[in-house]
Amino acid sequence: MELFYKSTRDSGVRVTASQAILQGLSEDGGLFVPETVPSFDVSMKELAEMTYQETAYAVMSRFLTDFTEEELKECIEKAYDSKFDLPQIAPLVKAEGAYYLELFHGATIAFKDMALSILPHLMTVSARKNQVKKEIVILTATSGDTGKAALAGFADVPGTKIIVFYPKDGVSPIQEKQMVTQKGDNTFVVGIRGNFDDAQSGVKAIFGDMALKEELAAAGYQFSSANSINIGRLVPQIVYYVYAYAKLFADGEIEENEPVNVVVPTGNFGNILAAYYAKQMGLPIQKLICASNENKVLYDFFQTGCYNKNREFLLTSSPSMDILVSSNLERLIYQIAEQDDETACRLMEDLAKNGKYEITPAMEKKLGNFYGGYASEEETAAAIRSLYQSVGYVIDTHTAVASCVYNKYQKETGDAIKTVIASTASPYKFTKSVMEAMGEAVDGADDFELADRLSALSGVPVPKAVEEIRSANVLHNTVVDADEMKRTVKEFLTKQ
Which of 134, 195, 197, 317 could, after both became Cys, cross-link 222 (CB 3.0–4.6 A)? Predict the structure, then answer.
């Protein structure tokens, strides 16, 4: 049976999966959501014997129903190949009683690779299926990791161009070097003087600019997005939660249908939303633990039912979570409003006008499966140091936020259910913060020197993704104000 997608702001919109992937964002500004969340018809015993690629097909074929078996399997094979440094793609590591789901073994050593390795293939197939003749322009804002993963995925893909905006002073040195050294004639990287929310708001404004859309259409271009607002990003993220559960079962760590908790370090809310969809499909997830850094807008939302971005934007050691507007939360809001598009629309208008909105008590009751927590900068560093000193396992700053929040949750609730922690980035992306947290002097060393020292301490080789950029030439050096983003896009495309 074919599954269609509708907009969170207009339930009358009805598109196929491939159309939703191509558009990225609905024309009314809403996000595409499935009309119903499909349930599993595959047993856990079958899933336990599957490879990552086979699990990906079992999950994604339920959501992307207008893709043929051959089309989808080809996309999966091209995505999850030797770009990943381990055949398991997403291994589990047990440390101090929790299971760390390592999502950073792809080309850019962050969890965004898990979805952005496949999105370009889904998009080119979608364009072919819908007879799209225009060149697709991927327009993306990044808080650090999405940008490089999207650039790596779309570089030199025929029929596409990609433009990435990032906060010039809001990413780690290695994150920035990964982006500005990106090769590919169809790639363009722009630093903005501002924060991630400025970049994200600018991209949304460009998507909503109908005059610009018409102007570029006449020139043979159409916009789409590689951000987690694209359903083609979200669906592949569901896969690794299913895979993790099946592997725990296969390894005898849990019984069939035994509940588990999932902890996710969260900024834009896409990664934890994927876990929520996995739960909706029937995966026995009991608690969805949403871990925030000091930009704790989501923690406050789960505590009070009020989402309020009117606060100081803090630059932290976990920059991919330095976000005050969590775009994917809109999909959850729509769900707990019983798919009432008028309610979702009104709340998003409140956010746009006043910087805040408040959900009803009835909606708040439906958030019982979620727990919000946050970690300060000091607590984040302590989590890295504690895990390294006790078992020799090194985690990055984002994973440390999740680890800290999980420990707080356990102390507060006494919940002893087995728990999966999403480990979203390699510690080699944030060497300075990680080394300082471990109690090592950094002595003005650059990130590449620190990577060598971290390797000596941890026994883990420096990843290929870091070695490749060590001496790479900077190819992108454009920096603009946030209000110059539209002009910059037009200039790039008219020069092509």
Answer: 134
DSSP 437-489: HTT---TT--HHHHHHHHHHHH-PPPPHHHHHHTTPPP---EEEEGGGHHHHH
* pLDDT tens-place string over residues 118-176: 999 999 999 999 999 899 999 999 988 888 999 999 999 989 999 999 999 899 999 99
Q: Could you give the angle at which helices 329-336 and 341-354 cross, rounded to 10 degrees?
A: 140
> Which are the contacts of 176, defined by CB distance < 8 A and separation ≥ 6?
166, 191
CA distance 277 to 239: 10
Interior/surface letters 47-82, b for 16+ CB within 10 angstroms, e for the rest: bbebebbbbbbbbbbbbbbbbeeebbbebbeebbee
pLDDT in tens, 399-451: 999 999 999 999 999 999 999 999 999 999 999 999 999 999 998 899 999 99
Cα–Cα distance measured from residue 102 to residue 79, given in angstroms and rounded to the nearest whole number: 17
* CA distances, 120 to each of 115, 230, 440, 496 (Å): 9, 12, 40, 20
Q: What angle do CA 45, 46, 47 make, to 5 degrees?
A: 90
CA 442 – CA 437 distance, rounded (Å): 10
114, 18, 3, 125: which is closest to 75 by C-alpha? 125
Picking from 106, 173, 176, the residue whose alpha carbon sits closest to that of residue 448 is 173
Q: Looking at the DSSP assignment, which residues form a beta bridge with residue 15?
A: 5
Measured CA to CA, the distance from residue 237 to residue 89 in angstroms comes to 13
For residues 126, 163, 25, 288, the Cα torsion angle rounded to the nearest 10 degrees is 100
Q: Which residue has the tokens 């390795």?
A: 117
Q: Which two tokens stand for residue 316?
A: 């932290």
Residues annotated as catalytic (active site), given as ranges: 112
Those residues with Cβ within 8 angstroms of residue 150's Cβ, 6 or more apart along the chain or in another chain: 112, 116, 119, 138, 140, 142, 162, 164, 226
Residue 429 neighbours by CB distance under 10 Å: 32
